[in-house]
Automatic annotation (TrEMBL):
Pfam families hit by this protein: Pkinase
SMART domains in the record: S_TKc
Molecular function terms from GO: ATP binding; protein serine/threonine kinase activity
Lineage: Eukaryota, Metazoa, Ecdysozoa, Nematoda, Chromadorea
Name the UniProt record assigns to this protein: Protein kinase domain-containing protein
PROSITE patterns with a match to the protein in the record: PROTEIN_KINASE_DOM, PROTEIN_KINASE_ST
Length: 191
């Protein structure tokens, strides 16, 4: 997250955070690579939807938003974090609609209360958001601690404006533990 915080501090959006773009060096330090889709953040400039690999793509891009914010990277990082616990991607769709349904099956159907600008997204004219949701969010990310589930839940919120910033993620109790793995029942592994 410190790498994402740095990128955002330089006013860039990576737009392709995924396991394949995270590299572990000999000092067990994760480095972010592949800046091919990165863009300078400017709220007045629309961006292409061809950003973020499908399984890590936030729902607003799946719903054709071209107003990408830094929260795009936070969603993707939340998906990567969930994948460390699951040992497989959190959302594994085969296309845009399949991905939307996979997201709804885990997070439930979005409401206007939790995402007030939902109906302003271009695809909402043509898409009806339906789908069953799982009984509990916790079931989608087995073996994750309460703190892990809480931080992931705050990283993959429907409303991009309500997602934590990279700095806020780093201030979360999950990162405040001196030895995170000792406090969890399960230590995530890299696939």
């Amino acid at each position: 997250m410190m790498g994402i915080e740095y990128i955002h501090g330089m006013n860039f959006i990576h737009r392709d955070i995924k396991p394949d773009n995270l590299m572990l060096n000999e000092n067990d330090c994760i480095k972010i690579g592949d800046f091919g889709l990165a863009r300078v953040y400017d709220p007045d400039i629309e961006m292409t939807q061809e950003a973020v690999s499908l399984w890590y793509r936030p729902i607003e891009i799946l719903l054709d938003s071209q107003n990408h914010t830094k929260s795009v990277d936070i969603w993707s990082a939340g998906c990567v974090m969930a994948e460390l616990y699951r040992r497989c991607p959190l959302f594994q769709g085969e296309g845009q609609l399949s991905m939307i349904n996979k997201i709804i099956s885990v997070l439930g159907k979005p409401t206007l209360e939790e995402w007030p600008t939902l109906n302003e997204l271009p695809a909402m004219r043509n898409v009806e958001l339906n789908g069953p949701s799982i009984t509990r969010f916790e079931d989608a990310i087995p073996n994750a601690s309460k703190s892990s589930l809480d931080i992931i839940r705050h990283m993959i919120k429907y409303d991009p404006e309500r997602r934590l910033s990279a700095s806020q993620v780093l201030e979360h109790e999950y990162f405040k533990n001196d030895d995170i793995s000792a406090k969890n029942n399960y230590e995530p592994e890299f696939p």
